[in-house]
Amino acid sequence: MATKRIDCTVNGQKHSLEVGVGESLLEVLRNRLHLTGTKKGCGVGECGACTVLVDGEAIDSCLFLAVWADGKAIRTIEGEAKEGQLTKVQKAFVEEGAVQCGFCTPGFVMSVTALTEKGCHCDREGLKKELSGHMCRCTGYHNIINAAEKAMREK
């Protein structure tokens, strides 16, 4: 397979990597950088478990080619808590009981983080629409939406 060298920043750390031209960002994050908080779910962009932020935008890393990450800033769930302090989104998920098995949680947290950083003030129906690309088999979504609402209210 043909390869290409990319330079990117992941969770504030610069990386220079040789990646396959058909390799997904998800594969690079998990297999090369050992950032396993980003989950491989469906592999076709339907479940949201692999959501990361690329230049502040929530993307499905299973569909995003690693070569597209050249020159980009990538954030994964591992880069969110600083010095053991949870972000307001992570705190809201804990406080609202929006975590069950945890498989989908990193993707939800990253998407809600992107929304809050953009200043989104969606109502409950708007949040459901914004998060419709995520699947959770445990919580029934009620607590996840509550957590998203709480995070958006926090300053």
TrEMBL record:
Pathway: Alkaloid degradation; nicotine degradation. It comes from Heliobacterium modesticaldum (strain ATCC 51547 / Ice1). Pfam families: Fer2, Fer2_2. SUPFAM superfamilies: 2Fe-2S ferredoxin-like, CO dehydrogenase ISP C-domain like. This is 2fe-2S iron-sulfur cluster binding domain. It comes from the Bacteria. The keyword Secreted does not apply. Transmembrane segments: none annotated. GO terms for molecular function: 2 iron, 2 sulfur cluster binding; metal ion binding; xanthine dehydrogenase activity. Signal peptide: none annotated. Keywords: 2Fe-2S, Iron, Iron-sulfur, Metal-binding, Oxidoreductase. Residues 4-80 form the 2Fe-2S ferredoxin-type domain. One of its GO terms (biological process) is purine nucleobase metabolic process.
